[in-house]
Amino acid sequence: MPRKGMRSICFSPRTPSFSVSRQSMSPSRTSLSSTPRRRFSESMIEQAIDAAATIIMKWDAETSAYARVTSLFYESKREAMQFIRFFNELQKIMHLLVPEDSGSEKIIQAQNLMQIAMKRLQKEFYQILSMNRAHLDPESVSTRSSRTSARSSTSDYDGEDDEIRTAEDSISEVEEVSSMAMSDLKLIADCMIASGYAKECIHIYKLIRKSIIDEGIYKLGIEKISSSQVNKMDWDVLDLKIKNWLEAVKISLRMLFTGEKILCDKVFASSDSIRESCFTEISKEGATLLFGFPELVAKTKKSPPEKMFRVLDMYTAISENWQEIETIFSFESTSGIRLQALNSLIRLSESVRSLLTDFESTIQKDSSKAMIPGGGLHPLTIYLMNYLTILADYSSILTDIISDWPPPAKSSLPESYFDSPDSDKSPLPAISVRISWLIFVLLCKLDGKAKHYKGVSLSYLFLANNLQHVISRVRTSNLQYLLGEEWIAKHEAKVRQFAANYERLAWGHVFASLPENPTASMTQGETKEYFRKFNSSFEDAYRKQSSCVPLDSKLRDEIKVSLGRKLVAVYREFYDTHKSTVGDERSVRLFVRFSPEDIGNYLSDLFFGTVSSQSSSTSSSTSSHHRRHMWSQQRA
Known about the structure:
mainly alpha
């Protein structure tokens, strides 16, 4: 430790670059500063110096082996308080003597004692910080701070288990050690700062505390990494790092940086500038690494579909903790940390917009011409709706991101896509318009794919199945709140229209095989011909439609009920009126193959046994996490 000048020690000059507010330690006994020099005899000053020398020299590590291996504050708290008090007494004596005789033996002796004492205090400061790393880790400090305020709310309850009480006693013991260490550090820091040793105090504090923060950040999986390194990573590796980062943000803000700020505020309560300087230098590197990572991810050229949700997760983590970020890093000197977090938010929002554009482009460019057997669900429908249902879970965040993003051109969308479900027809939120547009793009693509079916009826069933799947996913997710009941009702009407067209085209020739007036009189030959035509057309339609399945159970039942109500009723009238005119029993067996009950049973069993595993219904209780897991599994 460099030897301090006499004036430096006596008049407590402020450390360069810091505005130090002095706090003199009040001695428990005689206060020399309150008594003019002339009222003190030489013997009183000499007694005070001798008394100080006794305890200070006892703890001189250069002359005492005991002092070299023992901690003053750990060994005897009472003696530590006496040490501080005598140190302050020496400083007051020098304040009185220096103006009169700066070269006297007493002044020199007092100065030497103070330098020995200061070396001891530096050693104690270092030892307390080092020996109490476990009790002064940011998690312990932040937890103690929160528990202190919460303890009063639970102190009135009795009857806890012995195990709970034991655990609480253990926690209280740890908190007590932490609190004592913080108080001791503050006592020493106040003394060193007031004596002009702020620089040495700060150096020791920063050296130890920065290593703790840096180690904490590293253990959380946050490390220095370049943009090129991120671009070279496989997505699975990067995805794991993002997951680690999401956890690291929570722990860092709630424990690591919060605990360190609490400790800085406590230890350096006597100086705002030192408190700010210490916290900034200790936390700046780690916090910059932490909040810089999302910007690297946002800029990466990799754009797998899963990236959208990771980007949204990171945006959510920063935006939802923004107030905490501003509170922890509120100093002017930590503005760079706030700026880094803000830059990451901006880059993440830009990435979201870019990914949405890419997603739309992927749908637009899909050129597959393969026809789905039986008019079932197209993979594009499943993919898009899985994607959108997960996006809907981020609706509040997406609203912030795309609120000022220009919507699709109105000329590209039907008028209804820009109407609110409310009666006043106020505009939909930007996120609702964007999702409506993406669904519209899908429906347009499906309309084009439907034209590849040879049978027109099957193309209508294809459209009905896929649109019904879209509606089912909307109804069982947060999409229902974004699109509204009116949107759902309009598209349900379209499904019914598609189903009616399917029914008309697939079964129309069966209806046409029966006379317009089923009860009209006719010859035996005409009756046999009608029965023959009905048998042939029904068997043909049934055979063809057995491979076509309305996937949604409700839609399937509606089609069967509609067919049964119309066809069975008409056929029953014809059957009851003309069966007896066919001829003898042999003729009846030959021409009347189906009774009305047979037709009903056939129609009832029509769509069973071939239902696709890709059901269009999704439980409304499906969680966002489960939806994301299922989606990633389907993509794999």
